[in-house]
Amino acid sequence: MNKPIKQSNPRNIVSASPTSVGVVQNPCQDQGGNRSGADFCRSALPANRGLFYDSGWHEAESGRHIAVENPSTGESLGEIADGDAADIAAVVASAKRGFGLWRDVHPLERAAILRQIAEIVRRNARELAAIDAIDCGNPFTAMINDAAIAASQLDFFAGLVTEMKGHSVPMGPDAINFSVREPLGVVAKILPFNHPFMFSAGKIAAPLAAGNSVIVKPPEQAPLSTLRFTELIDGLLPPGVFNVATGGREAGQALTAHRDIAMLSVIGSIATGRAVMRAAADGIRPVLLELGGKNALIAFADADPFAVADAMIAGMNFAWCGQSCGSTSRAFIHAGIYDAVLEHLRRGCTAIRPGLPTEPETKMGAIGSRSQFERILAMIETGRKDGARLLAGGGRPTDPKLANGFFIDPTVFVDVTPEMRIAREEIFGPVLSVLRWDDEAAMVRAVNALDYGLTCSIWTNDLATAYRAASAVEAGYVWVNEVGRHFLGTPFGGYKQSGIGREECLEELISYTQEKNIYIRLLQPNNAGKLACSKRIL
Fold it and tell me: Domain 4-26+36-291+505-514 - what CATH class?
């Protein structure tokens, strides 16, 4: 039995408004303005660092811990419990008991609780954003928007609880046939480090609305906002309905292999998705996967070079160092506007400078972990060796304040060719590859040549061209004369190896249910207690 710990007393989604979560003039200071941004962020850290299940905090049975550090300074942020198979068994048992309670709660009551959680997120957005700023390296101001997005997702799915509808099939006067949708059971959510809080709060909305219990495995690199969120909502849900399994690879493997997990949902790399699918296959369990992307931005000759350059910068999500599955990290620019676009692009990228995430003026933060930092630098060196021309960045910033953190300047390679590694592999960092094209058919083949197919951004003033290109590209989410934005209610997800399933829409809610058919033969009064023989229709 795991020893309980004594309890102490963060996508640019259009419907999410930063003003709704109380942005202040100096967001990184406390309300009185007496503490620095870093001090305020540290004061917001969670008191509890264990696994959470059965509405209580528990140490790992092994007593092991994982160190957590601030990627922008290298300083320690303490430790979290490192769960193993024994801990995961206890977490899953809790979630299974919680499911038995939650599935029978009236849908509108479930919705009311989700809305309460959304309000808690809004009220505590500053401290949750502050935690992510020092734990994952993203700027505080960007993380404020993450909190708004999470709250919007909770409200959105709360409003859909009555839409989990079945169907009726006519059977004549002597029978009724209809279907109902029921929750699956225990849903495991394995989450990445780039938007820790937004995913831990926002991605539980659909499975909880559908009546499932949930286990969240936060990223070991940035788990602290999830733990603080758990402290804030403790007591709102019945025991076992919401659970947190902290730990590393061993905890993740135990979670995906457990026979009582009804569905696995992952946001991560293609390699992680494959591993989860293999584990799910043993139990023939459904999966929802949002995986990697090497997404294309395509600019035609009639597009405005200024607008295209701005879109290339926006699409790279430099605020969180390009660490986004949806970043448009391959830009295919028509030869007719290529040089003009590059001039505007160079100016725009050199104006973006990394800074400490806790400072309010910072627009670009730090890489989330040392291993990712080293991989990005290695890929930049590969780009140089392969013959790509460096237009901007390519190394670490010179600001001495950033010397101890994992910072990389916005990096742009031009004159890239499709066979280069930087044009084929997801770098998950602030590295943009720019390719010139003048043959549309060849360009489309290059866009579609990879196993990725998450997003694509198309820039043209011609409607026929836009629709032709949108139809030709193999991607699940396409923008025309727009980039990066998500719209609640529209299906987000990938083609090919960029994922399975759709999120941020009704289809996501439905995916957390299963359909049951019910046939009722109506006994006539003169035949009560007597079963007539009937011919079965095959």
Answer: alpha beta
